[in-house]
Design a protein that fits this description.
5 helices, 134 residues, mainly alpha
């Protein structure tokens, strides 16, 4: 067995794990506290020209799709990387029917909500508010 290869894979796994954790932390900290409420406005660049707005929406969804596919590949045993975390980041970027309900059901788990709100508090952010009828 080539130890350089094993060490390289381990370093790649550690680097991708760190990048995934940082990305999720930044995402969760910068979300508005009302992001998961039905009343929260989710229109991207609504005040911009429609060409710019639709270009942004298409690019955001393409990046989300790429990250979901990459996460699927990274989830295969033997391939280093944080597949599940990459899929979650990709899903946050995608627009699809039922997305809001899925997000709310994931974050409605008490243990997860407590951890996310503790993280947000560490950065001086208000706790996330959820619709409790999920």
């Amino acid at each position: 067995m080539n130890w350089e290869y094993v060490v390289g894979l381990a370093l790649l796994w550690i680097a991708s794990f760190a990048v995934s954790i940082v990305a999720i932390t930044v995402l969760l900290v910068h979300l508005p506290s009302t992001y998961f409420l039905d009343s929260h406005q989710r229109e991207l660049w609504i005040d911009r020209h429609r060409v710019i707005r639709w270009t942004g929406i298409v690019l955001k969804n393409l990046l989300g799709l790429f990250l979901v596919l990459l996460g699927g590949v990274l989830s295969v045993p033997g391939i280093p990387g944080q597949g599940l975390l990459t899929v979650v980041i990709g899903l946050v970027l995608l627009d699809f029917p039922g997305k809001r309900r899925l997000e709310q059901s994931i974050l409605s788990r008490p243990g997860l909500r407590v951890r996310v709100n503790r993280l947000r508090a560490r950065f001086g952010r208000e706790p996330l508010v959820l619709d409790d009828r999920v």
